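Researcher: We plan to redesign the surface later, but first we want a full-length starting point. Tokens attached.
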């Protein structure tokens, strides 16, 4: 279908006819004659939906936006109900007036989105799709004075002899006829809205423009190459002749040549080297060129003499009075200029041949560096060897490694092939914590970059909006500089790995410099699953060895846990032996702790440590016992494990008394204190009880829990399995005892609680600290997978930071230190300077590295077992952009559970009411009748009134008269005491707490109950022994009881349990009967709120239950079990009881069956449980370069003569004093000079011991005090080693390849 309207044009003119058509006049006339009715404006989505339906009906594409706009209905005015296509075809004038008025309203700031405004927005969008309509709207705006007349330049006159000409051609014509016509038109009086009026308005407006000269923005520069009338600006006749004067020696002693003032270039971009213009974004050209370069009087472009590393852009002006000519000032970024040879006169050596490097212009590429809120750019210099003529970039790794640490730390970036990354960005990946991944970092960078780019764009657009002509249309040609995308995740990871590989040897040395007296060894499998690539699936375990401070001595990946650790153990023993450290005293393991005869396997592995005591970790032993329980979600699992711990350990009495005193002082003297497990572990010490006592207590604990079940009748212990575990694990009771003479606790601090000072302890027993490390180890490797090199780097970096943090925590006041550094080289250099110049150390090193012992760590150890080789060379570092990780689909299923109906009849409690009656005189007919009536029919009198308080009712129940033993409905005696206690508990529903008097009375009633009623409640089983179908049929755990998992997983909520029927306990049943009697009606009122009967009963039962549980006296002196009952179990119990009473009444006359109720043959034996699961010292010599700044020398002399003279003088004084003091040569320093020069004797001066200088050096170089140092001698000597042409090539500034 055709979506464009059929326009009507004026005769012999391209202008649209503004008058309405006959059809439009008819519709308007009908609208005026018709009685006005209410018109419901349709929502925009409904208008679009109806339009799509009409488009589809006409055979068009309902997804085409133009077609949908064409069929959209007008929702206002005399043409409402007509389509927009019809409106433009029949009344252009009306449409233009609506569009012009609506756009003016929008430009004034009205951004409302009402259905009417959205309908007008659709009209504007549709009308501006067609150029004739745009021209008609522009003419309308010009008549209204809201648009510049220059928009009508191409409008045809459309009348008279000049009808074929445009407004612009007629106005600018110079022939007499046209000029006369224009002059005549200026003086005429014409009617508004006519073509002549449009032409006259255009002419008068152009006349006004001629009187006002066009103002050029003050900040806009003249066109490059154009002549300037300003004498301060030079012409650009001579373009760039040289890039810089890097080899021309100039210092503060060299004065600038006298002459006229140096003129500036008209364009900063022309001052840039040509290669820089190709790699530097256009918006950076102007300011970088003007900031870094200048033009001399002879027209030569040179580098400015006032150099610095960081250059900040001038940015946009604060105020604009004219629209800015370009958006470049708003999007400028900083520039980093890296010229170590030029700036610091640094002496460099050629890496291959050792020759002297001199400046050779600028490096051709400007690098883009990723920063936290954007990008900045970096340029450097070329250095050329005078011997082999090899060129090296100033930021290459060979050059950076020759810098001393003070100057090396000034370089801010990590370089890759195409892009670079600021070290501050990559530093955010170094902290190995949960969630600190490259994906998170990239998301943060994208957010910051986007915000920065939007802020710059808003500033630029706000200036344009402020200075825009009123009513001006949006400029389609206006474009913003695009935001450079943030690289992908894989690139960020490759940069992090590349940065870490530069200090790989130092990192290994720090890992192999950790020692300890109490060691722990444990293995884990989880982190091995992250090893991907060619090494995927080759690692079975990661084994870690830690010390008493929580530091990790070694972490290796192995293909097996047993014999594969022999090399690791040999490396640890060699480390202790080489460092002269005393062997460790204790080693905690999780297996291979003992044997029946001879030495254990672990002791044989560490055979050099004869005094080493091997102990089994207690936690692992308890986990072995835990395999004998049916499920770890059992309600008695926690108490069972606590009982096992109590059987092994005993607490220090003094520590416990101190903690209890602090708690009582904090909560009040008479308070019932409860010591939490966390408080005990932090403030109290404990020790093992001894093997014999432990065995006796463990046997006792097992006997206590053999028959224990939870509220669903599920047993806690699988007896057959637990008996087997006990028979095999009891021999390890000697292995878990504390070693004699070894103190396992460390006091780490104190805190005050309730005015009592409590010590804080850290325990070194067992491998608990390694279990915590295993959790962090998974966080060391971010994501779900990593290649072998990435895995190795993440592991080493994480170990270094982990050990440093643990070492800091082991030192008094270490955690309060405000300074923190993890780089050993930076710490070493900083410590040297502060010791030499300040006489003290400002930053402590908590893991001082020693020389690397050569031990294999991590993946290297794994590859030594498999025969593979770990290649740490990443090859091409420019990785492609990272790809987004696909989100895995997952379903959160609603695991329902259908509760089965309870079987059997609920016994009748027809004696309940009779036991609550007040005693009457014995033998009276009334008493006898009442007793008989109550005992047979179950009716009862109301309970005693509460007006006199609840205590009176309890006193009645505690009457000292002797009563006969009453048998309850279940056939057991002592039921009268159950009812009395239930009545006493029911009185608690009116109280928010239990008083001491009430507690004593309830305890007295509890003591009267029989032993059977005092016993623990036995809950009926609610699971199936064999589950053959359903969603819970299969369990993912190795050991489970069939059917138990299905029931447990059906209970929703953390710590929740299944509600029980009241019939499980005589006491609970009696309490609920009391409450049901109190609320005999279907509805009741509590605190003015009308509540259903069962809701009121449940509310009061929970109140009673809370009062009992919150009363320490009742919990200590009784074992009252008021388990959970919900409304469903309550109503089921009540309904079944009522039906059973009716059924028994009817069944009295029915004879019972003659056959027995039990089967003659026994039932088949149940399925057996699944088989048991499978049991399964010398400091590091930092070879850092000496400071060689100021020592660069060319044929013309030193680049920094003043500094050079000072260094020479200081070296000569040092050499003279050392020569007079001793005839023997000085001991070399640990710091090495660049490119293998002789080590210096002074780290501050960075010079070496003197030797005899060559004759050529003495003849050409500036005459230093004899004898010069060897380093300075080489600086001079290299300038004479080659032909004259090669020497000249090194000093000619501004070579072509530099630009």
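Model: Full-length starting sequence:
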């Amino acid at each position: 279908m055709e979506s464009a309207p059929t326009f009507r044009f004026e005769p012999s003119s391209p202008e649209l006819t503004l008058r309405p058509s006959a059809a439009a006049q008819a519709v308007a006339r009908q609208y005026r004659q018709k009685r006005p009715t209410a018109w419901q404006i349709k929502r925009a989505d409904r208008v679009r939906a109806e339009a799509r339906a009409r488009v589809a009906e006409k055979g068009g594409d309902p997804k085409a936006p133009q077609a949908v706009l064409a069929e959209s209905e007008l929702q206002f005015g005399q043409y409402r109900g007509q389509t927009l296509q019809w409106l433009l075809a029949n009344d252009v004038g009306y449409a233009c007036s609506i569009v012009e008025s609506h756009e003016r309203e929008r430009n004034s700031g009205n951004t409302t989105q009402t259905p009417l405004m959205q309908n007008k927005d659709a009209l504007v969008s549709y009308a501006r799709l067609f150029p004739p309509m745009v021209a008609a709207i522009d003419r309308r705006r010009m008549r209204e004075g809201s648009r510049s007349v220059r928009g009508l330049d191409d409008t045809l006159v459309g009348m008279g002899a000049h009808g074929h000409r445009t407004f612009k051609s007629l106005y600018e014509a110079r022939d007499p006829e046209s000029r006369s016509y224009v002059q005549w038109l200026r003086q005429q009086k014409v009617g508004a809205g006519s073509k002549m009026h449009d032409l006259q308005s255009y002419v008068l407006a152009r006349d006004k423009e001629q009187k006002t000269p066009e103002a050029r923005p003050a900040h806009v520069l003249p066109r490059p190459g154009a002549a300037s009338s300003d004498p301060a600006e030079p012409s650009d006749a001579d373009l760039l002749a040289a890039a810089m004067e890097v080899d021309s020696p100039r210092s503060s002693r060299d004065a600038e040549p006298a002459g006229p003032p140096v003129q500036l270039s008209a364009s900063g971009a022309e001052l840039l080297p040509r290669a820089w213009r190709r790699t530097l974004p256009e918006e950076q050209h102007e300011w970088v060129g003007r900031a870094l370069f200048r033009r001399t009087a002879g027209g030569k472009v040179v580098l400015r003499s006032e150099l610095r590393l960081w250059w900040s852009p001038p940015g946009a002006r604060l105020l604009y009075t004219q629209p800015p000519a370009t958006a470049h000032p708003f999007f400028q970024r900083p520039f980093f200029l890296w010229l170590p040879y030029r700036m610091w006169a640094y002496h460099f050596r050629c890496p291959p041949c050792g020759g002297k490097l001199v400046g050779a212009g600028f490096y051709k590429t400007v690098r883009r560096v990723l920063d936290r809120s954007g990008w900045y750019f970096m340029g450097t210099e070329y250095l050329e060897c005078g011997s082999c003529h090899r060129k090296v970039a100033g930021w290459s790794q060979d050059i950076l490694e020759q810098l001393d640490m003070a100057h090396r730390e000034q370089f801010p970036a990590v370089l890759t092939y195409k892009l670079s990354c600021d070290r501050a960005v990559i530093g955010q990946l170094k902290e190995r914590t949960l969630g600190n991944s490259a994906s998170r970092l990239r998301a943060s960078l994208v957010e910051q970059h986007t915000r920065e780019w939007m802020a710059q764009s808003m500033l630029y657009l706000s200036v344009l909006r402020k200075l825009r002509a009123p009513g001006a249309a949006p400029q389609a040609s206006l474009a913003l500089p695009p935001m450079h995308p943030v690289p992908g995740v894989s690139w960020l990871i490759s940069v992090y790995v590349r940065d870490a590989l530069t200090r790989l040897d130092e990192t290994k040395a720090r890992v192999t410099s950790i020692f300890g007296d109490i060691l722990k060894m444990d293995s884990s499998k989880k982190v091995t699953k992250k090893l991907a690539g060619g090494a995927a699936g080759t690692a079975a375990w990661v084994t870690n060895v830690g010390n008493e401070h929580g530091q990790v001595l070694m972490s290796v990946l192995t293909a097996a846990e047993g014999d594969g650790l022999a090399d690791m153990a040999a490396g640890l023993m060699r480390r202790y032996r080489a460092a002269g450290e005393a062997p460790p005293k204790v080693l905690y393991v999780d297996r291979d702790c003992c044997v029946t005869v001879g030495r254990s396997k672990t002791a044989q592995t560490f055979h050099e440590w004869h005094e080493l005591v091997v102990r089994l970790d207690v936690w692992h032993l308890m986990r072995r016992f835990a395999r004998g329980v049916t499920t770890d979600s059992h309600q008695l699992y926690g108490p069972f494990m606590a009982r096992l711990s109590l059987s092994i350990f005993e607490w220090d009495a003094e520590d416990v008394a101190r903690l209890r005193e602090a708690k009582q002082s904090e909560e009040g003297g008479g308070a019932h204190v409860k010591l939490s497990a966390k408080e005990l572990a932090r403030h109290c010490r404990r020790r093992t009880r001894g093997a014999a006592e432990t065995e006796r207590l463990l046997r006792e604990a097992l006997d206590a829990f053999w028959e224990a079940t939870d509220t669903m009748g599920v047993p806690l212990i699988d007896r057959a399995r637990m008996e087997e575990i006990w028979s095999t694990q009891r021999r390890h009771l000697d292995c878990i005892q504390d070693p004699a003479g070894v103190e396992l606790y460390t006091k780490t601090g104190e805190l005050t609680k309730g005015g009592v000072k409590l010590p804080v302890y850290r325990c070194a027993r067992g491998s608990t600290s390694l279990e915590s490390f295993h959790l962090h180890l998974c966080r060391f490797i971010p994501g779900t997978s990593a290649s072998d090199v990435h895995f190795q780097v993440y592991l080493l970096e994480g170990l270094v930071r982990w050990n440093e943090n643990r070492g800091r925590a082991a030192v008094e006041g270490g955690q309060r230190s405000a300074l923190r550094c993890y780089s050993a080289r930076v710490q070493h250099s900083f410590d040297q300077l502060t010791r030499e110049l300040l006489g003290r150390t400002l930053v402590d090193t908590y893991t001082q590295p020693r020389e690397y012992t050569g031990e294999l760590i991590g993946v290297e150890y794994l590859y030594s077992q498999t025969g593979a080789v770990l290649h740490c060379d990443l090859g091409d570092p420019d990785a492609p952009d990272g790809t987004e990780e696909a989100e895995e689909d997952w379903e959160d299923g609603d695991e329902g559970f259908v509760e089965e109906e309870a079987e059997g009849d609920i016994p009748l409690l027809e004696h309940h009411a009779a036991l609550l009656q007040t005693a009457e005189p014995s033998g009276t007919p009334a008493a006898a009748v009442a007793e008989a009536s109550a005992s047979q029919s179950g009716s009862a009198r109301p309970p005693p009134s509460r007006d006199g308080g609840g205590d009176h009712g309890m006193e009645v129940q505690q009457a000292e008269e002797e009563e006969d033993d009453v048998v309850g409905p279940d056939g057991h005696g002592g039921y009268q005491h159950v009812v009395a206690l239930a009545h006493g508990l029911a009185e608690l529903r009116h109280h928010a707490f239990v008083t001491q008097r009430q507690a004593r009375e309830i305890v007295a009633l509890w003591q009267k109950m029989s032993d059977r009623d005092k016993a623990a409640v036995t809950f009926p089983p609610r699971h199936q022994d064999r589950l053959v179908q359903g969603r819970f049929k299969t369990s993912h755990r190795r050991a489970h009881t069939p059917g138990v998992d299905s029931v447990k997983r059906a209970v929703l909520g953390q710590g929740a349990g299944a509600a029980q029927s009241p019939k499980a306990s005589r006491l609970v049943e009696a309490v609920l009967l009391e409450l049901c009697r109190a609320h005999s009606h279907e509805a009741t009122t509590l605190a003015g709120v009308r509540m259903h009967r069962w809701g009121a009963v449940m509310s009061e039962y929970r109140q009673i239950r809370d009062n009992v549980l919150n009363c320490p006296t009742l919990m200590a002196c009784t074992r009252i079990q008021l388990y959970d009952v919900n409304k469903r179990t309550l109503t089921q119990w009540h309904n079944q009881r009522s039906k059973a009473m009716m059924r028994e009444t009817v069944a009295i006359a029915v004879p019972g069956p003659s056959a027995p109720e039990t089967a003659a043959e026994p039932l088949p034996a149940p399925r057996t449980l699944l088989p048991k699961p499978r049991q399964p010292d010398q400091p590091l010599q930092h070879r850092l370069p000496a400071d060689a700044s100021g020592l660069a020398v060319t044929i013309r002399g030193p680049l920094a003569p003043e500094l050079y003279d000072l260094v020479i003088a200081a070296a000569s004084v040092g050499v003279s004093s050392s020569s007079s003091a001793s005839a023997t040569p000085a001991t070399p320093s640990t710091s090495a000079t660049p490119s293998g020069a002789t080590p210096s004797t002074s780290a501050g001066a960075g010079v070496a011991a003197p030797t005899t200088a060559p004759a050529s050096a003495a003849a050409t170089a500036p005459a230093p005090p004899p004898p010069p140092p060897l380093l300075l001698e080489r600086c001079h000597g290299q300038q004479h080693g080659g032909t004259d042409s090669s020497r000249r090539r090194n000093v000619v500034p501004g070579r072509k390849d530099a630009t």
